[in-house]
Structure formats: C-alpha cells, structure tokens
Amino acid sequence: MSTYVIGDVQGCYQELQALLAAVRFDPEVDAAWFVGDLINRGPDNLATLQLIRSLPHSQVVLGNHDLHFLAVAAGCQTAKKGDTLSDLLTAPELPQIIDWLRQQPLLHYVPDLHCAMVHAGVPPIWSLTTALARADEVQRVLRGPDYIAFLSEMYGNEPSTWTDDLAGVARLRLITNYFTRMRYCSRQGDLELQHKTDIAPTGYAPWFSYPPRDPTLQILFGHWAAINGETDSSWAKALDTGCVWGRTLTALCLEDGRRTQVPAQARMH
To answer: What ranges do the domains of the chain cover?
Structure first.
C-alpha cells in the first residue's frame, strides 16, 4: 500500500487521471490524499469530485475554493469572474456533493505517520494540539445546522491577529483564513493576505519559514502555486505546482518521498 498526497486539482480531471496512472495507483490498496481546492477554475469539477469520492481510501481537506463553492451553492455568495462551477451547480447530485464537502475537515492528522495535511498552512503560534482544536471549531459549525450563516460571514481579511478571546464570526473567520488562505504571516501569527507571489511583504515571511513548534511533524499543504512546490524545508511539503495555470499536477508518495508530476493539458482559453 502506498499513500499519495496530491496537489490542488481544481477540476483538472484529465490530469488527475494521468497522475494516478503515472504512479500506477491501485484504488483497492493505495490511498489518495488531496490538499484541498479540489474544484474551481478548471474544466471538469463534477468528474473530479465523482472520481475522488469513488476512491475507497481517499482523504481530503477543504481549501478556499471548496468553501467558496459551498457559499455559492448556498446562495450566500455570487460566483466570481473565472469561477467554473456551473457543472457542479447544475448536477443532479448537487445536494449529495454539498453534504459530502461539509463533512470534510480543515486539518487531517495521522498519528502513525506524524504528519498533518492542510490546504494553506498552520500558523507558527499554534501547536498541533491547538491547531486540531481550532480546526474542529470550524468543522463543527460547517457540519451543523447554522453552516449557511457561517458561509455568509466567512469572507474578509479581518481580524488578522489572533487572540484567545476572539469570539463568534471573527474567531471562525480567522481560523478559516489561517487554514485555507495563509501564505505570509509574522512570527506572532499576524496574517498578510494581499500578497500571493514569492516576494515577501515587509515585516512578513512565509508561514513555514519560522521555526516549527514540532520539527518532527511533517505538514503537507497546497494553495501556493507561486512557490511551485518548493519550501527549502525538511518538514513543510508544498504540493501545489499550478496545474490549473498550465504547469503540473504533483503527487508525493509518503512512504518513499518520491514526487511524480504530469503536465497540464493544453486548453483553449
């Protein structure tokens, strides 16, 4: 059995099929983990989710695009320019897809491997125990009866600074931003969400550049296509290599550390 951690698919179904073929993926015994942003911006969102949901040993975490889809489907957010969600929104199985996504975590931890998977990252101010507890706060709301109210208030860059006395919507929004949108932050965990390139804004650095709370914990993440899977870190493994932007889709085998990539398909824009 092998465990393959796969970068942001974003509806690139053909590339996902090619990647699974390239690693000779056996769905009966192999596991596929997905670092979030399963859908949106790519051409085949419905087929992508159908494939991922069909794999008996799959594990996903939610990314910002997955949450955005839930908000659009719930009617509390309008689609943005560049969204490609129509195949999902018109699918007969839309209610089942929504229910399935709502059950997925923001942070997945496997004690036997001592590794955690998250879409964007884990802020340097939080231990693993704290991060799991914070993720659970959002997960419980997302799985509960008031999830539409949460999705309606989810958008925004404030607050950007964590304090333990944060409450309500502000608390949930910042937790969500840490796990699904973070790239740069300060040593104190202050978020900077405007910059997306590999050039750090003054006073901030990539979240994984700070000394880890537990250097033995491996963190697997996506979200940051601009760094193209490179972190110069022994413990933070980046998987987003910009497939939807015309580059590659990447899988990391946890057992041997080998990376496999397939090129993006050429498409008419």
So the answer is: 3-263
Helix (H) or strand (E) holding 89: helix 86-89
Taking only Cα atoms into account, the Rg of the chain, rounded to an integer number of angstroms, comes to: 17
Q: Could you tell me which of 60, 68, 67 has the C-alpha nearest to residue 31?
A: 60
Q: How many CA atoms lie within 13 A of 35 on its CB side?
A: 33
Give me the torsion for CA of 93, 138, 189, 242, rounded to 10°: -10
Tell me the longest C-alpha to C-alpha distance in the chain. 50
Annotation: CATH topology of 3-263: Purple Acid Phosphatase; chain A, domain 2 (3.60.21)
Backbone angles phi, psi at 68, to 5 degrees: -60, -45
Give the mean model confidence (pLDDT) for residues 139-168.
Answer: 97
Do residues 128 and 116 lie in contact, with contact meaning Cβ atoms separated by under 8 Å?
Answer: yes
| pLDDT tens-digit readout, 187-208 | 999 999 998 887 889 999 999 9
